[in-house]
Amino acid sequence: MTRDILILGATGFTGQLIARYLVNHPQRASSPFNVTLGGRSRDKLNRVAKSLGLSTDAGSVVVVDLSDYSTVERAVVRAKVVINAVGPYWKFGDFVVRACARHGVHYVDITPEPHFIADIVAKYDFMAFKTNALVIPACGFDSIPPDIAVFVANRYVKAVLGSDTSIEDSTTAYDVEGGFSGGLIHSIMSFVEDPGKTLIKSAADYGLRQPHGPPSRLPRIVYKLPYDVSTSWYGTIWPQRVINRQTVHHSWSLFERSRDAHPADAYGDKFRYDECLRSPGPISALFVGFSICLFVVAILISPIRWVLKRILPQSGIGPASDKGHFEVVNITKAGPLTVKTTVRGEGEFAYYATARMTSEAALAILLQFNELPYRKTGGGGVLTPAAALGDVLIRRLEDFAGVTISSESIKTGETKKTR
Ligand SMILES: NC(=O)c1ccc[n+]([C@@H]2O[C@H](COP(=O)([O-])OP(=O)(O)OC[C@H]3O[C@@H](n4cnc5c(N)ncnc54)[C@H](OP(=O)(O)O)[C@@H]3O)[C@@H](O)[C@H]2O)c1
């Protein structure tokens, strides 16, 4: 039996949210698709399956240990789309991507680890291109909102100023409410335990693939952004800039490769990307910024890391409810234009919103494959949400995941909505 969607890590905190969202998805009534739960413990899998009203037979549950390539390959080869929710990805992700790329199986994940993506681009991009597998990492809150915000801002600019215009300074500011899971904390801690070379390489601008665009500005402790003609916003360091900037740069490189055929998609040679966490004023920005720096320094010290690992939430634990919101605002300049693009949603941002976004990315591939724009960038390969899924994903997020996406010009003070 074919597995329409196989969720790896379905017993984890985020994996269970993804499974619940997919099992209850409204499109299952009109376009029935099956969901298979994958994990390393049969008992846990059976418990999750029962809680979702699924059977516990081989059609709904499969035991997979991601450290054993043969079990991974056996599970993956029968799937159409794999969602990988097992982190840290640099430790556990390689075999899954290898099996998907080898067998032409589509893959999405929620990695926040650019060094993992750099690694799979180097190892499996060509293989996935040959088998036409879509391998799309960072399909969670990291990095769908910023990736599609820049994509939509670029289109707005091109519609107003013409397809040859380059977008210029582009900054995404985050206002979020949610929580942390043990899995994420474990991933953050393990970040600094990864072999340094890969980490340093992927921290560089355009660290994932060629061609390389213009360098980013250095991150700052205090940011000031134009919000409208009379107001400014403040912001500070946003830790997820590490992954999001790489994803947006990755989209830059993919769109640049197809610039001759699709000039309007290319962001252009003046593009500079940055991110910040919104803050009420410059003093609070300074305070929060320094606290974040302090935390980063602390986790670099192994005894402190050892203590934090024991006192912070453990694997499988995360925010108890879907209470929260997110507002991701991108301000992009291009010549005389300043464009504000807003990606907004209700609900906890880091896990519940991630589950909705990742699931919609997988469903875009499963249910709307023939409408996807991925061919514009050359075919299968290790791609980004914006380059591979584009408008199909945007419509799905709006139609099913409670996300609103809009762009407007804020140059003149007279706003003009396009979406
Ligand atoms: N990008 C984003 O926006 C975003 C958002 C949320 C989470 N994440 C990332 O998602 C990942 C998962 O987070 P989480 O909080 O859901 O973690 P979690 O609750 O600890 O779940 C981890 C899952 O991985 C499974 N697993 C671990 N080692 C395995 C192996 N060798 N073989 C098969 N399965 C294995 C675990 O199985 P057991 O149940 O048997 O232990 C569990 O199902 C983390 O890397 C986190 O950084 C990213």
UniProtKB/TrEMBL annotation:
Asked if the keyword Transit peptide belongs to this entry, the reply reads no
InterPro entries, per the entry: NAD(P)-bd_dom_sf, Saccharopine_DH-like_oxidrdct, Sacchrp_dh_NADP-bd
Gene Ontology CC: one annotated term: plasma membrane
Mind telling me which PANTHER family this protein's record contains?
SACCHAROPINE DEHYDROGENASE-LIKE OXIDOREDUCTASE
Q: Name one Pfam family in it.
A: Sacchrp_dh_NADP
Name of the protein this chain belongs to: Saccharopine dehydrogenase-domain-containing protein
Its BP terms in the Gene Ontology are: glycolipid biosynthetic process
Where are the bilayer-spanning segments?
285-308
